[in-house]
Design goal:
It is a single chain. By secondary structure, the chain is of the alpha/beta class. The protein has a single domain, classed as Peptidoglycan recognition protein-like (Lysozyme-like, 3-Layer(aba) Sandwich). Helices cover 23% and strands 15% of the residues. The protein is built from four helices and seven strands. A hairpin with a 5-residue loop joins strand 1 and strand 2. The longest helix has 18 residues. The two termini are 22 Å apart.
């Protein structure tokens, strides 16, 4: 799916269809890697969603431009769970070229921020966090995605609402996540294109 933002730049939104085993778009199907988890255990009402939490991958490995590597990391022993998570830990993923991957339908929560999983939308940017290297394409895609999410959630696009609903992972955890992404720059770019 390709959409155009107001500045006529192409933004790509993709569904993860690289391997049927990892089809998490909620439209074509919702298949878990770990069959012992029941999707109903992870359902949430969209009415309870009140924020977007932005993360980074904490690595710059080029292979992570393919979201399958993110999903593989999430579902095996990792920093969240020694047993691995039941599925990808983010609803949306933005790689270095700025492609947006919809990994999990919003009606399902994912394990991304303790005590905020049920009431938030998780967005992850492929960014190592050690040096400021978020690409222009990633920033454009992030702004596009946030505006898209505000539209589907029927939230007002205004500075107070942006500040009320957009959070960085470091706001809730003692982590430098999403790295060098600048909160004020995100808000400024959202207001520029409103």
């Amino acid at each position: 799916m390709e959409k155009r933002s107001r500045n006529s730049q192409k933004i790509k939104m993709k569904k993860t269809e690289i391997n049927k085993k990892y089809l998490f778009d909620g439209v074509s199907g919702f298949e878990y890697i770990n069959k012992s988890y029941n999707p109903d255990n992870f359902k949430k009402s969209l009415n309870y969603i009140d924020e977007i939490i932005i993360h980074c991958t904490a690595n710059d490995n080029e292979k992570w431009n393919n979201p399958i590597f993110l999903i593989e990391y999430d579902t095996h022993s990792n920093h969240i769970s020694k047993n691995g998570c039941p599925f990808a830990t983010y609803h949306y993923y933005i790689n270095k070229p700025g492609e947006i991957f919809h990994l999990i339908d919003l009606k399902y929560f994912c394990w991304h921020c303790k005590a905020h999983n049920r009431n938030s939308i998780a967005v992850c940017i492929h960014h190592g966090g050690i040096i400021p290297n978020v690409t222009e394409q990633q920033m454009n895609s992030l702004i596009f995605l946030i505006k898209y999410l505000f539209e589907i959630m029927k939230w007002e696009k205004s500075e107070p609402e942006y500040r009320n609903r957009i959070r960085f992972h470091r706001d809730y955890a003692n982590k430098f996540c999403p790295g060098f992404l600048d909160y004020e720059e995100v808000i400024e770019k959202l207001l520029e294109n409103s």
